[in-house]
Amino acid sequence: MKKTKRWWSILSICAALILSIALAGCSNSEKASEGKKGDVTLRILIWNNNPEGTKLENEIFRAFEKENPGIKVKTVYAPYDKFNDKFLTMSAGGDQPDLVWIQPAAFGQFVAKGLLMDLTDRVEKEINKDEFLPNVLELGQVNGKQYALIRDASAFQMGYNKDLFDKAGVPYPKDDWTWEDFLEAAKKLTKVENGKIVQFGIENFYTNELLVENGGGFVSPDGKKVIIDSPESIEAIQFGRDLIHKYHVQPTSAQSQGMTNMFLAGKAAMRLLGPWDWADTAKNANFRWDVVPMPAGKAGNVAAASYLPIGISKGTKHPEEAWKLLKFLTYGKGQDLQLNTISAVSVMKRNADKIESMKNAPENAKSLAKTLKEGKTVRNAPYTPEYAEIVNKIQPVIDNINLKNLDVEKELKKIADQIRKEYNLQ
Questions:
Q1: Is pTM beyond 0.85 here?
Q2: Which of 167, 241, 249, 263 is the most interior residue, by most CB within 10 Å?
C-alpha cells in the first residue's frame, strides 16, 4: 500500500512537470504570435477627415504594413484650423504622435520649439537627392537642416467651366495668360438677370496666390522684413478687392452664403483647383471642365507652392520604424501609389510625366507637370517661429478689406507698422 502511494506521488509530480512545460510552451507560442501581429504601432497626425480621403490614405498605409510586417499605422485626426494647437498640446503633454503633417506657416515654430527630429544625417546617407524634382528637398529644410520630407508638391491652377465659356463665346484661357486676360474673361462670364448677378466670373481668388503672382507677400523670404505694404502687395490685394466691389465678378460673402461650391453648382465660371480637387470635380461636375496655370501678375508665370511636409516627432519611441514610414511615403513606393489613390502629385522625377495620366486628371494636366518640372513654384511661407502668428493677424485685415471695401493701402500700412513694432522686424 505504501509502495502504491509512492508511485502515485511520483506520477503526479511527473504529470505536473509535463503540464508546466506544456503551459510554458503555449505561453511562449502566444508571445511569439503577438509579436507577429505587430509589436509597433506608429501614430501619424493628419488633418484629412474626409471619409473618402481617409479611406484612400489608409490604402497607402496598408501597403506599407504589408511591406513591413510588425509595424502598424494609426491615424490621429485634428481639424485644419486647430491642427497646430493639437500638435503643441500633445507635445506638451508628452503624447507626441510619431509622425506629423506640417502646415508650412507653422514649420519654423515647430523647429524652434524642438518638436521635430533632425533628419539631415539620415537624408545624406539614405536618400539620392538627384531623384527629386527641383526645389523639393529645400521645402523641408530650416536653416539648412532637414526637418521634414515632402510627400506631394503642387500648385493651384485655375479651373474653368468649358460649357459656360462656350455659351458666353469666350475663348478658353491659355497657359501664358495674364491678370488682364483673366479679368476680361471674368467680366464676360458674369451674368446679370433682373438686376441680380446669377453667375459670377470666379468663385474666389486666394490671398497667397494673388501675392505670389505679383511678387508680394506677408513678410520677406528670410522672415526679417514686413512686405505686406510693399507696392506689389498693395496692388495684389487691391486687385482682389476690386474683383468683388469694382468689377463685381467675384461674389461678396453675402452673395456666396449657403453655397459651398459655386463652381460645381454652375454659378461661377472659374475656381482655383488643385490636384486634390480633381476627383471631387470629376465626380460631381455635370459640365466639361479643364485647368490652366494661374494668370500672371508682375512676377510672371509663377505659382505659390502647395505642398505637404511630413516630419518625425522628436519624442517618438520608434525612430527607426518612423523613418521607414516617412521614406515609404515621401521617397519610396508610396510616391507611386499616391498618384492614382489620393490624387497627390509625386515629388519624384520618375513620376513627373505621370501627372497627365493620374486618375481624374483634366485634359491640360500637362501644364501642371511643366510648372513643376521647370521649378516655377514659389515657397510663400518663411520658416520663422512667428510667421503663423503674423499671418493670423494680417489675414483678418485683408478679409475685412474685402468685406467692407476699405482703403487697401491705408489698412495694410497700419497692420504692417503694428507687426514691425510687435515683432521687431524691418
A1: no
A2: 263
